[in-house]
Write a structure and sequence with these properties.
Layout: H1 2-10, E1 14-16, H2 19-29, E2 36-38, H3 54-59, E3 67-71, H4 80-93, E4 98-102, H5 108-117, E5 124-128, H6 135-141, E6 144-147, H7 156-163, E7 168-171, H8 176-179, E8 186-189, H9 194-205, H10 208-225, H11 228-237
Parallel strand pairs: 1-2, 3-4, 3-6, 4-5, 6-7, 7-8
Helix pairs in contact: 4-9
Length: 238
């Protein structure tokens, strides 16, 4: 924070990737709000909808199973022990569902142990590190994205999932309310409200037309607001 404060205060103009980040800079670093511009980051155009990749379906034993996906770094602020609690509640109503936690990080082994203790060992799949080139396939593998992170400056995983036509159930903290329109592309939930997360996910899992409607709305929103050409043009204007 000390370095960021000095750099931002000394700059003529500051560009940040979300309104949330702008507010943080003003409130926590004392930067003049008048010189800060919000320019949303972009989502690469390669993140497109597509059929479930059969190689991953077979690899992880997901044939005929609804798939909930988390993709990202396995770190504290992603709120992943809470996600396991959500899934434990959800799986009582949807026992054939599977939770895929894709990514690596310091919490990988603790999360595996927690899943085993909760009796979810056969229903939660930990993929480990996912190469950048395989991320699109993992989004296409899923029926919806679950992302209960307690703080995001932008939320690339959410934007990428939306670009791939996925409905999302995400935290209402940080910048995520700027990406997701509640009730149009998914749901924004309190990242401490287990029942809300589980209930919204169950609603989507049981309603294929609603998933398609929300996914299409998310894809359109990303095309309209969160592409790199928009980011470049807006940066040039600033």
């Amino acid at each position: 924070p000390l370095i960021e404060r000095r750099v931002m205060r000394g700059a003529d103009l500051v560009i940040v990737g979300s309104e949330f980040s702008r507010q943080q800079a003003v409130k926590e670093l004392g930067v003049d709000a008048g010189k800060i511009s919000v320019v949303y980051y972009g989502v690469d155009a390669r993140f497109t909808p597509g059929p479930k990749p059969q190689r991953l379906v077979e690899r992880w034993g997901l044939r005929d199973h609804p798939v909930l996906l988390f993709l990202g770094g396995l770190k504290e602020r992603k709120n992943l022990f809470f996600l396991l609690d959500v899934y434990r509640e959800l799986v009582r109503e949807q026992p054939d569902s599977r939770l895929v936690i894709a990514g690596s990080g310091p919490l990988l082994e603790p999360l595996k142990r927690a899943a085993e203790r909760a009796g979810l060992g056969g229903q939660v799949i930990f993929t480990g590190y996912v190469p950048e080139a395989e991320k699109v396939e993992y989004y296409r593998l899923a029926d919806l994205l679950m992302f209960p992170s307690s703080m995001e400056g932008f939320g690339f995983s959410v934007g990428e999932a939306m670009s791939c036509g996925l409905p999302v159930v995400v935290s209402n903290r940080g910048s995520l309310p700027e990406l997701v329109v509640d009730g149009e592309g998914g749901s924004l939930c309190d990242p401490a409200d287990r029942s809300a997360f589980a209930g919204r996910a169950l609603q989507l899992l049981s309603d294929s037309p609603l998933r398609e409607k929300f996914g299409a709305a998310n894809r359109e929103r990303v095309d309209r607001l969160f592409r790199w050409d928009h980011c470049a043009e807006r940066t040039k204007q600033v």
